């Protein structure tokens, strides 16, 4: 059951990501990204991270992607022009990506014993557990992050403010 | 084998809830036309069937038989997908709403489709996905009124979702859970006195929720996305026949969901307002159905309030709407969180 769901949504995730690259219209790419984000939420849920799954849908598929589509709609961005790709991509990009893929698979496969494993659907992290970790053990990093975000918001307001 | 039974019972439950829900949507439209009619000193629909009770059927047949126009300049895939997204999202959130007490038949919950630990977050998440239906419909219609309407709607939804989410934090803190059944159970012991809106001291949160929810569902006095005088019909200007009907159904389905959530979070869900004062009457069937009756009664009250507000208040101006959401509702919601947490900490010791 869990495995079936994993393959359905994992496949949806990959198809969405490919579609994101292949579509020529920006709004179709944005919608594919929403599919990717939402399928990722289901994968989180399969691993037992229910709060993370809900946050993924609300924050990423909801709020952030709405802003993306909003900007695309406002700018009324047209179709993207097809080129044959830059020479740099052929010389450095593709071999680089292949080397990275090989390196990562080698590291993960050779250290299988040390990495530990998680079975789908075998455990559940409740919202209570998560908040206990966030607000007790990791309180300082959590608060520092929130101050960082506050600074970012203030910076955005200062930049966007009109001079009188 | 038990998996099969689970699947079959779940499908039956989904079918039953969907039929009741869609019927409720149709009759909410009739209720609105009747009540707004009486507020404006006219009768409303009264010709089709006794008291006009068959009017929703006639409306449905009319919408089915209308020609489905597809304007030439639209971006077709999204133009067709938009009403489907809107309706699907509005129907999805009813699946986590519990209608009655936790009564099980062969291990299957009778009065709720899915009992989730994160029920409340699921409703918020589905609402935030529902924005796409409106946003894409306006953009794909290739019409300036549609685009302006959908831009307004999306901006309004994003702005008021913050206040809406923050107003629920106090309720969640009191229950210590995001599961809707837990939130109702903590309001059960002393009837009306334990409800979050009274005994839970969440009346400020309740009014924030109510106002933000009216804005979320694009209803008067926040119905700027479809302000007739400026935007003809807003984001669904170019839609006809069943595609228009899907937007219409989505709007009323959202109204019902918002009323259900308000009932669950602030008015004690399916629990009786009199607590244990009323003697337990009838057999087990009556005892199982009585909570459903209380739930429906409360939801009906909220739907009536929706219509009453629509018949009473004039529409906001756009800058007033944004100012109200960001400069008034949001700070008050944050203040409510602080006071609620202080009160809970004080009570705990």
TrEMBL record, chain A:
It is a multi-pass membrane protein. GO terms for molecular function: NADH dehydrogenase (ubiquinone) activity; quinone binding. InterPro entries: NADH_UbQ/plastoQ_OxRdtase_su6 (IPR001457), Nuo/plastoQ_OxRdtase_6_NuoJ (IPR042106). It is found in: Cell membrane. Gene3D superfamilies: NADH-ubiquinone/plastoquinone oxidoreductase chain 6, subunit NuoJ. Its main location: membrane. It comes from the Bacteria. This is NADH-quinone oxidoreductase subunit J. It comes from Acidipila rosea. The lineage of its organism: Bacteria, Pseudomonadati, Acidobacteriota, Terriglobia, Terriglobales.
UniProtKB/TrEMBL annotation, chain B:
GO terms for molecular function: NADH dehydrogenase activity; oxidoreductase activity, acting on NAD(P)H, quinone or similar compound as acceptor; quinone binding. PROSITE patterns: COMPLEX1_ND1_1 (PS00667), COMPLEX1_ND1_2 (PS00668). The chain crosses the membrane at residues 6-30, 78-101, 113-136, 157-175, 195-215, 244-268, 288-308, 328-346. It catalyses: a quinone + NADH + 5 H(+)(in) = a quinol + NAD(+) + 4 H(+)(out). Its EC number is 7.1.1.-. One of its GO terms (cellular component) is plasma membrane. Keywords: Cell membrane, Membrane, NAD, Quinone, Translocase, Transmembrane, Transmembrane helix, Ubiquinone. GO terms for biological process: aerobic respiration. It holds the Pfam family NADHdh. InterPro entries: NADH_UbQ_OxRdtase_su1/FPO (IPR001694), NADH_UbQ_OxRdtase_su1_CS (IPR018086). It is a multi-pass membrane protein. It is found in: Cell membrane; Membrane. Belongs to the complex I subunit 1 family. NDH-1 shuttles electrons from NADH, via FMN and iron-sulfur (Fe-S) centers, to quinones in the respiratory chain. The immediate electron acceptor for the enzyme in this species is believed to be ubiquinone. Couples the redox reaction to proton translocation (for every two electrons transferred, four hydrogen ions are translocated across the cytoplasmic membrane), and thus conserves the redox energy in a proton gradient. This subunit may bind ubiquinone. NDH-1 is composed of 14 different subunits. Subunits NuoA, H, J, K, L, M, N constitute the membrane sector of the complex. This is NADH-quinone oxidoreductase subunit H.
